[in-house]
Amino acid sequence: MAIPAGAWSPSRSPVCSPTRIKAIPGITDVTTDQLNAGPMLDIAIKREVASSYGIMPYAIDNTLDDAFGQRIVSTMYTTLN
Length: 81
Known about the structure:
Oligomer: single chain
Distance between the termini: 23 Å
Structural class: mainly alpha
Order of helices and strands: HHH
Strand content: under 5%
Shape: elongated
Largest sheet: none
């Protein structure tokens, strides 16, 4: 079963809707935990200031991802019937 090109493109969220995905023959049990229009924050790192403290940009990125990123911690499987 092939999913149409662009079906999972994050920039085209109407295409990714569970309703559209469920309409594809052979696809069953479709759910999502995607939250659209959530709060966003743009951060500009002053690299020269961070560097003067010995902080690398990847450390800032990892710290922000640890604090606010979403990660799958575990997956619970159950029988369908």
